[in-house]
Amino acid sequence: HSVRIAIANQKGGVGKTTTAINLAAGLAQRGKRVLLVDLDPQANCTISFVDRQSIELSVYDLLTESAVEFRDVVMKTSQENLDLLPARISLAKLEGKLIGDFEGPYKLKDRLHPASSDYDAIVIDTPPTLGMITVNALVASTHLIIPIEAAYFALEGTQDLRETVKGIKARLNPQLDLLGVLVTKHDRRTLLSRGVYEEIYKGFGEKVFETTISKSVRLEESPAYRESIFTFAPASSGAIEYAKLCDEVMRRAY
Amino acid sequence: HSVRIAIANQKGGVGKTTTAINLAAGLAQRGKRVLLVDLDPQANCTISFVDRQSIELSVYDLLTESAVEFRDVVMKTSQENLDLLPARISLAKLEGKLIGDFEGPYKLKDRLHPASSDYDAIVIDTPPTLGMITVNALVASTHLIIPIEAAYFALEGTQDLRETVKGIKARLNPQLDLLGVLVTKHDRRTLLSRGVYEEIYKGFGEKVFETTISKSVRLEESPAYRESIFTFAPASSGAIEYAKLCDEVMRRAY
Ligand SMILES: Nc1ncnc2c1ncn2[C@@H]1O[C@H](COP(=O)(O)OP(=O)(O)OP(=O)(O)O)[C@@H](O)[C@H]1O
Ligand SMILES: Nc1ncnc2c1ncn2[C@@H]1O[C@H](COP(=O)(O)OP(=O)(O)OP(=O)(O)O)[C@@H](O)[C@H]1O
Ligand SMILES: [Mg+2]
Ligand SMILES: [Mg+2]
Q1: Contact B152 A221 (CB under 8 A)
Q2: Which residue from B minimizes the CA distance to A218?
Q3: What pLDDT, in 10s, does the model give residues B157-174?
Q4: DSSP per-residue codes, A105-137
Q5: Do B128 and A130 touch (CB under 8 A)?
């Protein structure tokens, strides 16, 4: 029984990539076979695991070239049980490429299909936009996690995102389910952060994960070492909290 | 002699909006007549100054309806000398609306033209994308400021942004000049932040502003009070540093 989880929020810098990396790595450490799909042209997930020069084909080639197959693109990572579909800046051209193609939203779903039985969990990182790339992620997924930063502009785009999800459920992917809302970069000492947490809870109720991710310098540093937080700083708050998140995700999704 | 400054970086959460707000407010406090143009569908600049319900027409209407004029859309703010062209979520439709319209990139430039002699400085906030909206900002501007966060993924998209700027200078707006690179969210105590600063300096040399903006809770809080950092926390590092930035911008641009 396999899950495909999109990590999405069109607001920038809210912790989508940090969550995608550490959720994927955490599930892999628990023995799940995991695929991390980098759908962001900025390729932040990708460079957190592999050397840019070692990438031959990327997810852009998989989505646009019928001759390219999943196994030509997928890469192993240093984390056991964790594979990666890498991104490259060419992915930014996807929108233009798929204009007027009513099959556009289904590209990722179709190209992932042959491989989905090989994985217990697929985690998909997305860019800060609500365009064709993010639509592809939402159409290909069974679940959605929305990371929301505990900061002033936090809730701005969420209404927009909810309407996009509603439209996708209605037209393109009825099984898409909001797995949960993850409060990130939480600074419990500040009134602002606690106030925003309250707002998020008012808006999403029990969809909000009990786990919240605190602001942590270790989380900021770990990608520089090409490691998840679990190997880089296993005793840090980031590691403890993302481990809690993995458990909570497994309870909700499996 | 008037300047039009786009604040752009397609990476999310790097301080574009925080810089747009405080640069605009700081120049206004120095007696310049300033227009802040919010070109982000997330409308973060807008909600940092006005109540959403008080907006009638937005910059989207200005860009897409020939019957709508600049004076129908522009709003005053609580800051003396500072006007605002507000954004709304409808702006997200701009890309789709202007597809195939080779005049698309010039919409903002044309609609701002009648008003540009009324202002000494126009500051334009952009979304974390390199699409039609950001192209409009770059075509309408005399200068560009690139805020870069002193964090691991900082330099990722900058090559892409530089190439976009190069293309725009070659084809659409030869006078566009990189005013400078602003290092933001700098935490001088961490090796990571200092290491990233070095990388930014290697990449951009003397284009890097001498002013860097330190991580500051006050900067995070001020939009919640609908104030610039100068009125909200005039003695804070954020206020001191953004004031220094205003002086440096004026030296470089005027
Ligand atoms: N809990 C945290 N504590 C401290 N820093 C964090 C935390 N989570 C993320 N960060 C840092 O914040 C920045 C943005 O995080 P991240 O890249 O994960 O966000 P994102 O939503 O993927 O951004 P984008 O929208 O640009 O893709 C990064 O420098 C990251 O290291
Ligand atoms: N120097 C700073 N110190 C602390 N927090 C900051 C600083 N600059 C910005 N922030 C906070 O970081 C978050 C992102 O900043 P901001 O919204 O200005 O970035 P942005 O580049 O406009 O993001 P987006 O790409 O989503 O438009 C906000 O919560 C903001 O308050
Ligand atoms: Mg990201
Ligand atoms: Mg912004």
Answers
A1: yes
A2: B192
A3: 899 999 999 999 999 999
A4: GGHHHHHHGGGGGG-SEEEEE--SS-SHHHHHH
A5: no
